[in-house]
């Protein structure tokens, strides 16, 4: 298996973890045809200065920068639009998503006959987050699944694989990345859940908390329900 794939990693002040992750991806996917797109979503750390020193050595690596922080959904859209390949895989830049899981997702992808509006979603095993984040996420997942019937067990997991052409047909709005399974379903697509390992965050701090995940998520949930229904 040697599949052309674009790996997109949105980052915001992840200087301490992203270069370790880039090195790891380079080793894990060395037998594959891939490009790695880092979408720098307005970081104000020293990421760009360091990136310029390694970019010439890695022809498959490129960076696109936003002038200011626009959020994960906007960063994902920028990366997908610039991708050279139709097959897309999304990872977080904090290093909690093991790159080996991309290989496992590729194997699942290749087995599927119907790939139109197909999305493969990672479901984290033994999630390495705080107790509050785990329980609030579990509660939010339960509400979302019951209302949207999206067949996704862990929509907050960044690891997802889909086709560029399908993603660009999805209506864009802020935080759309949290509802991709439901929106793919709305296009008569297929959602496949696969267990993935989750590693503890070693560097930096999460950009999300209870307020900006849960309450905003409820508002967005109503928006998506209305979008799908009407």
Question: What does the model show?
Answer:
This protein is an alpha/beta fold and 230 residues long. 41% of the residues lie in helices and 20% in strands. It is built from eight helices and seven strands, in the order βαβαβαβαβαβααβα. α5 packs parallel to α8. It starts with a strand and ends with a helix.
Profile the largest sheet: 7 strands, mixed
How many beta-strand elements?
Answer: 7
Number of helices: 8
- What oligomeric state do the depicted chains represent? single chain
Distance between the termini: 41 Å
* Net shape: globular
Helix content: 40-55%
Given helix and strand content, the structural type is alpha/beta
Integer-rounded radius of gyration: 17 Å
The percentage of residues in β strands lies in 15-25%
**If you average the pLDDT, what whole number results?**
87
Regions with little confidence, pLDDT below 50 for 5+ residues: none
Helix and strand sequence: EHEHEHEHEHEHHEH
What topology, given as strand order, has the largest sheet? 3-2-1-4-6-5-7
Short description, anyone?
This protein has 230 residues and is an alpha/beta fold. The protein has 8 helices and 7 strands.
Helices, strands, pairings?
Layout: E1 5-11, H1 15-28, E2 34-41, H2 47-54, E3 61-66, H3 72-82, E4 87-90, H4 100-111, E5 118-125, H5 131-148, E6 160-163, H6 164-167, H7 180-186, E7 190-197, H8 210-229
Parallel strand pairs: 1-2, 1-4, 2-3, 5-7
Antiparallel strand pairs: 4-6, 5-6
Helix pairs in contact: 5-8
């Amino acid at each position: 298996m040697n599949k052309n794939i674009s790996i997109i990693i949105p980052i915001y002040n992840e200087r301490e973890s992203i270069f370790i992750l880039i090195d790891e991806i380079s080793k894990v996917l060395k037998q594959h045809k891939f490009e790695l797109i880092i979408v720098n979503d307005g970081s104000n750390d020293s990421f760009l200065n360091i990136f310029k020193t390694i970019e010439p050595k890695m022809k498959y690596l490129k960076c696109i920068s936003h002038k200011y922080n626009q959020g994960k959904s906007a960063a994902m859209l920028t990366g997908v639009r610039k991708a050279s390949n139709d097959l897309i895989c999304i990872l977080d830049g904090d290093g909690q998503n093991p790159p080996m899981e991309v290989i496992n997702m590729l194997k699942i992808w290749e087995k599927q006959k119907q790939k139109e509006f197909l999305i493969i979603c990672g479901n984290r095993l033994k999630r390495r987050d705080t107790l509050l984040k785990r329980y609030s996420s579990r509660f939010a997942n339960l509400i979302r699944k019951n209302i949207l019937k999206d067949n996704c067990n862990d929509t907050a997991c960044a690891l997802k694989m889909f086709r560029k052409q399908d993603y660009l047909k999805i209506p864009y709005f802020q935080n759309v990345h949290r509802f991709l399974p439901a929106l793919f379903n709305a296009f008569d697509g297929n959602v496949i859940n696969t267990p993935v390992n989750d590693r503890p965050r070693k560097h930096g701090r999460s950009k999300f908390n209870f307020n900006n995940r849960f309450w905003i998520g409820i508002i967005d949930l109503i928006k998506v329900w209305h979008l799908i229904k009407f």
